[in-house]
Amino acid sequence: MPSIHSLQNKVALVIGGTGGIGAASARLFAEAGAKVVLTHRPGGKGEAAAAALLKTLPGADHAALPADVADTASLLALRDAITARYGRLDILVNTAGFTKPVPHGDLEALDDELIDRMFQVNWRGQFAAIRSFAPMLKASGDGVVISISSIAGSTGNGSSIAYCAVKAGIDVMTMSLARVLAPEVRVLGVAPGVVDTGFVPGRGADFNAKTAAATPLKRVARAEDVAAAVLACATHLTFSTGTTLVVDGGRSL
What we know:
Layout lengths: L10 E5 L4 H12 L3 E6 L3 H13 L6 E4 L5 H14 L5 E4 L17 H29 L2 E6 L3 H4 L5 H21 L3 E8 L12 H9 L9 H13 L8 E4 L6
Parallel strand pairs: 1-2, 1-4, 2-3, 4-5, 5-6, 6-7
Helix pairs in contact: 1-8, 3-4, 4-6
């Protein structure tokens, strides 16, 4: 018999599944028994990376499909493909995003084009994904949305002011959508601190070592640390919604 925390027969969609946190989350969902759908941006290296990751996942009936969160039409096409193949969706994980380091004091460097792109991909894209899949998640009766935020959204200290702003927006979106999608769908966020994934261009071992020294748990997060929190949102935190779980080793204290 499956345990109460098993995801057997569940379908989990990990948008941005080829990134560090996305890939680690996909592995844990597959290990818990879910059928996992990974997304990659159409064309380019992402398709090959998704195909390679797919081969490593335990279980069966996983899929890798193209989608661009900045293009709602591609999200709707993704919804159609998942409906045709599985007929259901139970878990949506939003991990897609990008950033570009800009010193907070350099206001001119944070130009309109970068600001617009940051919000398009990191906030509007997450909302569009939830909007697209909300009917399927409601139909599940036990749906859950998990969006990757950041402690930058609450500390105001991150790779750029725009990045801090979009992550604060993710936190607010999580609260708002938790109200309107309940009771059929829970909506949660996971807010890491520094994660050793190479997500932020230009940050390497020196930055991580400096950050670890200033963090109470004396290390930066691994992608697996964040993925464990994502999995817990789907399997253990069954009476939680509208909140964001901080996974930062105490860095924001």
